[in-house]
Write a structure and sequence with these properties.
single chain; 239 residues; alpha+beta; Beta Polymerase, domain 2; Four Helix Bundle (Hemerythrin (Met), subunit A); 2 domains; four-stranded mixed β-sheet; globular
Length: 239
């Protein structure tokens, strides 16, 4: 059994039992999602994402779960999100990017499939996507401003950001009507570049930063590309 299979097995058996013990009838659903369900899962660096839905999110019982499940959580690098069912439904308007991703790829390991009939607004998706893009642009401008052209400082500001950009790419593809969306960064970058006129090269360069990478130029090009992308998203007429 692989490390990935062993960890999924631990979640499905050990963690579910621990959650049932802690929450009893208050436990409504446990949903596994994210890279653990894809070929991109890396046992050395990837989290295991769990969404726990309760009828009522009682903080005292959450403390109890922490005591029961501490070893399971830490040993498997599990990152749980705990919501009441009402919180889950009412937050669909502010987390459409995340909810679309989970709805498209998830595994119910206990209880109801709360995503089955969940309505997620594409108009809200456009707003959140634009918000994330503008946040990225602002952050990169801050990096350039404060770096004093220090390559190490700039590199640290963009390292490991491709996951965020991949989430944005998936959202853009949903906004333009794509139904089959890949999970991988390179595929989604290519797909988005077929709809929007921007330079995709800096998005590739940040994934392989070396000592001789002209990182300042890369980030300048990245900002310019993001400006073109956000301009496209801003002009989308989504209702």
């Amino acid at each position: 059994m692989s490390i990935k299979e062993d960890r999924i097995n631990s979640v499905e058996k050990d963690f579910v039992m621990q959650a049932k013990t802690a929450f009893g009838d208050n436990l409504r659903s446990i949903i596994l999602y994210g890279s653990i369900l894809t070929e991109n899962y890396n046992p050395l660096s990837s989290d295991i994402n769990l969404l726990i839905i309760l009828n009522q999110a009682d903080p005292e019982r959450i403390v109890v779960l922490g005591k029961y499940a501490a070893k399971t959580l830490q040993g498997n690098n599990i990152t749980p999100t705990i919501l009441s069912h009402n919180e889950f439904i009412s937050s669909a308007d502010i987390f459409p990017m995340e909810y679309f991703d989970i709805k498209e790829l998830h595994k119910v390991i206990y209880g109801d499939d709360v995503f089955q009939n969940l309505e997620i607004s594409r108009a809200n998706l456009r707003l959140q996507t634009e918000d994330r893009l503008r946040g990225c642009i602002n952050s990169l401008r801050q990096v350039l401003l404060l770096s004093e052209s220090n390559p190490k400082y700039i590199a640290n500001g963009v390292r490991h950001t491709h996951g965020l950009y991949n989430a944005i790419f998936r959202s853009i593809l949903r906004l333009v009507g794509e139904e089959k969306i890949a999970y991988t960064y390179v595929e989604n970058l290519k797909a988005v570049s077929e709809y929007i006129d921007f330079n995709p090269q800096p998005f590739k360069d940040i994934c392989r930063i070396e000592k001789d990478t002209p990182i300042e130029s890369v980030v300048v090009d990245l900002v310019l590309a993001l400006v073109n992308i956000v301009d496209f998203v801003d002009k989308l007429n989504i209702k």
